[in-house]
Design brief:
By secondary structure, the chain is an alpha+beta fold. The chain has 4 domains: about 1-55 and about 250-420, no CATH class; about 60-220, no CATH class; about 420-515 and about 695-839, no CATH class; about 540-675, no CATH class. The strands form 2 sheets. A 6-stranded mixed barrel has the order 2-3-8-5-7-6. Strand 12 (about 540-555) and strand 13 (about 560) form a beta hairpin. The radius of gyration is 33 Å and the shape is elongated. It comes from Roseovarius gahaiensis.
Length: about 850
């Protein structure tokens, strides 16, 4: 027979409705919708950032310098190339209220040209120039409500930054270029740069950065201007950003989070694939007589395969279209709510790229999970007009279908690698899903075997005996139930373990190992008084101090550092650099030799061991570091053990004292003290040294914890979608199993069983399968959580038992609910009608 014949047969067969394909369609729609929704939000944010790149950046381009202002030549180039230039100084300081209350703030000192693009929205409403005018001879400032609320300041009140007094004119409601500021440890305060004179906050060696926003003539070639700037000032350490990608950090974060959530969505597709396979098997089982009749009439195996393949393809297409409409339509309809919660602009709409990605994933998933049931269906013979003929077919399809399945699976993983841009994460996710599926298949087989062997233990307990017989008997749905529920619970369990361990690591380490404060910007001549105050305080248990500069690793062995170690965090941006003469206490050299006290020869560098290994560095390498606009090349002579997880002091780079001590710099100090004494220490230091900034480690960790909580929440929503898909598959399995359970209940009623015992049997069966699926998911989740904590987060791992036990209980409850939802018909059916229909 021909393809047109198969298409005609498929069309006629579909006239009977979609009764057997409801769960199939639901799984396809939900899987497509989840991935399309994530992709749509990601693409909407990316488009919004691209369209408003100049506004978010504050200009057509930005040139940033680390801890220095642009020199005369650099400023002349900027003034000549741009129509307007705005200078911004960004640094941290302590805002001090009249009552002595203090708060860390991220200060933005601006000139009269700021902002080049956009407007700062204030409350009460006023122009920024009016806010800076101040009152009673004091300059004005504006402040984020979080900080003014913490300090109990109202517009009109005064506060202090360093040695300078300011009047709070208004609160910041909207800052147009805030997305480029990155992660800050304190809320924003904006002041005029000229008003900081005499504040003592921007002395030599102070930790600050300067940003020059440039407004170019219309049609300016930004790429050519970037090249010109970098070639004109090759050793200046400038960093160029322009409106082509005005918020690279935000864009990269959105891409990575979106890619991770898509991979979580693929877990949902895998669960949906199990549902697709189970629904298709159940549907084809009802078509056994039809298939056998077609074979009797001369239909060959290819025609049978194509007939039902066309049905699956058509319904999959319908499901994909509906899923795309749902996945794109919901974010667009909810765009006002989503945009209000986003810190960056988004342009919501229907974008082809995420839609194509979701459609490709779903089409491949449908093919992978539908191929085997279709291949088994074509093996039904003309004489096989008997019950369960399809179930008696070969367990594995013929080798061409196995090869095709492997090719489709490879294509799916390859597509995920390309779209996510993270090969390791994609392969790890695929391996985790595959491992969990294998574990669940083995667990389902073990449950069936144990149920058969445990029948003697159920003597005298009819409900339990019937439940075990249903699990271990012919036609059992243990496999699809455990696969669908277990995989969804595995994802949730892994997310829960990772989240709890990140929070637990913070809680465990903070009391014993983390310092109370980081004090930065301590001038050299302030160190004696600083140490005197702390050394005489019995509540202070430990003090660590070191000189600190900031620098950018520009070259390694006379090659650009970004080529030697592409993408490594050490070469992306500036890093803290210290110097020492004699080897500091607690410094452990693991390779090479320390230069020794009094060394004044050629510059030498000691590097953190782990980072050096990641970057491929070895003893003898020559490393060039740009510090304050000057290149300094030094030989790598030793590697140190540095533990950044303690939140204590640690430098990737330490150089010999003679190489750096003549450069302008300040000191940094970490203080370990009793919590009750922290407030007094902060007050005394900031009163005596207003220029010194104190960073509370507890507050910083709270902000990081909040960010992690947001990431965990987003991931948990993705895992919840996977679990919802699993619940749909459970419903499909229960629905497909309803006829068998109805027949079983009819026989039990005939033998005298009560409805209560039959219901108890059905409930026990569902609860046992759900509990076992939960236990397997717990094992998979703990393994996944350990792997991520150990290899990705590089933290310790402890099993979060509260989260773990809730997963097991949740599995039992969800399975129980799905089972009970379809228990009413079996226990209500009349035995005579059921048994007569099966004669």
């Amino acid at each position: 027979m021909s393809i047109p014949t198969a298409a005609r047969l498929a069309r006629r067969d579909l006239r009977g409705g979609l009764r057997g394909f409801r769960i199939f369609l639901a799984c396809v729609i939900l899987g497509v919708a989840a991935i399309a929704a994530v992709g749509t939000v990601r693409e909407s944010i990316a488009t919004g950032l691209e369209r408003k790149g100049a506004t978010l950046l504050g200009g057509d381009a930005e040139i940033e310098f680390t801890y220095r202002f642009a020199n005369e030549a650099e400023r002349d180039w900027m003034d000549g190339a741009a129509n307007r230039v705005s200078e911004i100084v960004d640094f941290r300081s302590m805002a001090v209220a009249p009552d002595g209350e203090r708060g860390l703030t991220q200060v933005k000192a601006v000139d009269r040209a700021y902002p080049l693009l956009g407007q700062v929205t204030l409350a009460p409403a006023m122009p920024l120039a009016q806010a800076f005018a101040g009152r009673d001879g004091l300059p004005g400032a504006v402040m984020h409500p979080l900080l003014s609320g913490k300090l109990d300041l109202q517009p009109g009140d005064t506060f202090r930054l360093g040695n300078a007094e300011f009047v709070l004119s208004a609160e910041i409601m909207f800052e147009p270029d805030n997305a480029t500021s990155g992660f800050g440890l304190g809320p924003r305060t904006i002041v005029r740069s000229a008003d900081l004179e005499g504040a003592g906050l921007l002395g030599p060696g102070t930790l600050y950065s300067t940003r020059y926003r440039l407004d170019f003539p219309a049609g300016a070639d930004l790429a050519a201007l970037q090249t010109q700037a970098e070639q004109t000032f090759p050793d200046s350490g400038l960093r160029w950003t322009d409106a082509r990608n005005g918020t690279p950090g935000v864009a990269e974060f959105v891409d990575r989070l979106g890619a991770f959530l898509v991979l979580v969505g693929l877990s949902g597709l895998a669960v949906g694939g199990v549902g697709i396979s189970a629904a298709l098997r159940a549907y084809l089982a009802t078509k056994t007589e039809t298939i056998a009749t077609l074979r009797t009439l001369g239909a060959d195996r290819r025609t049978i395969f194509l007939t039902y393949f066309f049905q699956v393809a058509l319904l999959a297409l319908v499901g994909i279209v509906c899923g795309l409409a749902l996945g794109v339509g919901v974010p667009v309809l909810l765009s006002p709510i989503i945009e209000a919660r986003l810190p960056v602009p988004a342009a919501f709409g229907a974008y082809p790229a995420p839609m194509a990605e979701a459609a490709l994933y779903s089409a491949l998933t449908v093919l992978i999970f539908a191929l085997w049931p279709l291949a088994r269906a074509q093996d039904v013979r003309a004489a096989a007009l008997f019950r369960d003929a399809l179930g008696q077919a070969r367990r594995l399809p013929r080798w061409p279908y196995l090869v095709t399945t492997l090719a489709l699976l490879t294509a799916l993983i390859g597509a995920a690698m390309i779209f996510s841009g993270n090969t390791i994460l994609t392969l790890s996710t695929a391996g985790g899903i595959f491992g969990a599926l294998i574990l669940l298949v083995l667990a389902a087989a073990a449950v069936v075997t144990l149920a058969r062997r445990a029948k003697p233990l159920a003597r005298g307990r009819p409900a339990l005996a019937w439940a075990l017989a249903a699990i271990g008997g012919p036609g059992t749905t243990a496999a699809p139930v455990m696969l669908s529920l277990g995989l969804g619970l595995s994802v949730l369990a892994a997310v829960g373990q990772i989240d709890q361990n990140l929070r637990g690591a913070i809680a465990r380490d903070l009391p014993d190992r983390a310092p109370s404060y980081f004090f930065v910007d301590i001038q050299k001549d302030q160190m004696p008084a600083f140490m005197k105050r702390l050394n005489t305080d019995p509540a202070v248990s430990r003090i660590e101090s070191a000189p600190m500069l900031r620098g950018v690793i520009s070259r390694i062995n006379d090659r650009p550092a970004t080529e030697v170690a592409p993408g490594h965090w050490v070469v992306e941006g500036d890093r803290g650099i210290s110097y020492a003469d004699a080897r500091p206490d607690r410094t452990k050299i693991v390779a090479g030799e320390w230069w020794g006290k009094g060394y004044d020869g050629p510059p030498q560098i000691s590097f953190a061991e782990e980072e050096a290994q990641e970057m491929g560095l070895s003893i003898g390498d020559m490393i060039t570091v740009n510090i304050l606009g000057r290149d300094l090349t030094a030989e790598l002579t030793s590697l140190r053990e540095v533990d950044f997880s303690t939140a204590g002091m640690g430098f990737v780079i330490v150089m010999n004292a003679a190489a750096l001590e003549g450069a302008p710099h300040t000191f940094i100090s970490t203080i370990y003290a009793e919590q009750e004494a922290e407030r007094d220490i902060l007050r005394d230091i900031s009163d005596a040294m207003p220029n010194v900034t104190a960073i509370s480690v507890r507050d910083a960790i709270d902000r990081v914890s909040g960010l992690l909580a947001g990431l965990a929440s987003a991931t948990a929503w993705g895992a919840a979608a996977t679990l919802l898909t699993g619940f749909l598959v459970l419903i499909g399995a229960a629905a497909a199993d309803q006829a068998a359970r109805t027949h079983e209940a009819a026989i039990l009623k005939t033998l005298g069983a009560s409805r209560a015992r039959i219901l108890a049997s059905l409930a026990l069966r569902a609860a046992i399968l759900g509990a076992v699926a939960g236990i397997v998911a717990l094992a998979a989740g703990i393994a996944g959580g350990w792997a991520v904590s150990h290899f990705v987060m590089d933290t310790g791992f402890e099993i979060a038992w509260a989260s773990a036990l809730s997963i097991v209980a949740g599995g039992a409850v969800i399975s129980l609910l799905a089972g009970l939802a379809f228990a009413w018909r079996p226990i209500q059916a009349r035995p005579a009608q059921v048994l007569r229909s099966r004669e």
